[in-house]
Amino acid sequence: MKEEFKVEIVNPEKSFLVKEDVSEVVVPAYEGEMGILKDHISIISFLKPGIIKILSKSGDNNYYVEDGIVEFKDNNLSILTSSIFNIAEMDKSKKQNLLKQAEIESSKQELNDQTKYLIDQKIEILKTLN
Amino acid sequence: MASLDDLKKRIASVKSTQKITKAMKMVAAAKLRKAQESAEKGRPYSEKMNNIILNLSCGISDKENAPKLLSGTGNDKVHLCVVMTSDRGLCGGFNSNIIKKAKSYFSKILSEGKELKIITVGSKGNDQLKRMYGDKIIENISFKESKNANYFDADKVGKIVIDKFVSSEFDICTIFYNQFKNVITQIPQAQQIIPLNSENSEDNTSEESYEFEPDEDEILSNLLPKNISTQIFKAMLENSASEQGSRMSAMDNATRNAGEMVDKLTIQYNRSRQAAITKELIEIISGAESL
Known about the structure:
Chain A is an alpha+beta fold. Chain A is built from 2 helices and 9 strands.
């Protein structure tokens, strides 16, 4: 039995990544990190800022996302996101920039609790990356 | 009859115009390839988004309390139209096709006694609509600075639309854009985005039940605003590909026409030159004969 499934990450501009031989994906879902294996039940959920881990035979990849939606169905995992970066390709200044932006956002006054919480989370993740 | 000098000048001027149109065609062709590519690359996202929403809206338990973006406000009194055009001219019928489509829709709405509000995206549409519907235009957005259509811009338009919807300034929102079919054909489209029109999308939803995290309503109310931006982004991508395609074929035509004109003028020039020579010869000969 093959224990692999297909993952597809798309952002508005292009199809970011397609991988057929994935054994496990860990996504930062709305209510906590969620590991997805083959034959998972069909699910739709949100992403919050965090790190997507893709484990496959050809090597593991980590991606940083800020928001998005995941859909898993018939052993196809689709991740829709407008902001995703491959951590291995991010250099120091890029990370610093993102962190700075997030900090500026969090210093704004008119935020409601939920966005504030998401931004704080973003800052925390970025700090661990830096 | 124009003098030889005049003809010469005209030929030169048509030739230089031809050079310009030729260069514009080349530039449009290069840009078209890029725009087309990004339009194709952008499709999976909007398709996937559409699918998820379709699946969700099928599975929604409480139709009565469904988010307003999906089910509408229940009225259809105030229509908001987002007319998306280009910022530059010289692209054939591109802008006027959209405007024509939009205008026929406007007059239909107005004749039904409904209220109309217009948002124009791109300065060319604003220029053309301002004369007839100037008082209806509530906002004009232009992305002259951004070179390519990007999601960030689309998101800005989407946010404006959603803000207006939340403050209940309109009931129904329709976007107008050109769908890119191929270089020669672009089809002006009117697409209703609020409330979401799920009837015209093909039925490929499965009965399979999903697990939702958090619950459906929350996902839907988060997803629908995103979908609006996505649809607008899709329209922008299609539009930019259409614009370049339309410009390319318009400039190709212009170059060809200029070529024909140069040929015609050259023949005319040669004929009158020959006529002048013949006339001169006749004068000399008849002068010599009379001696």
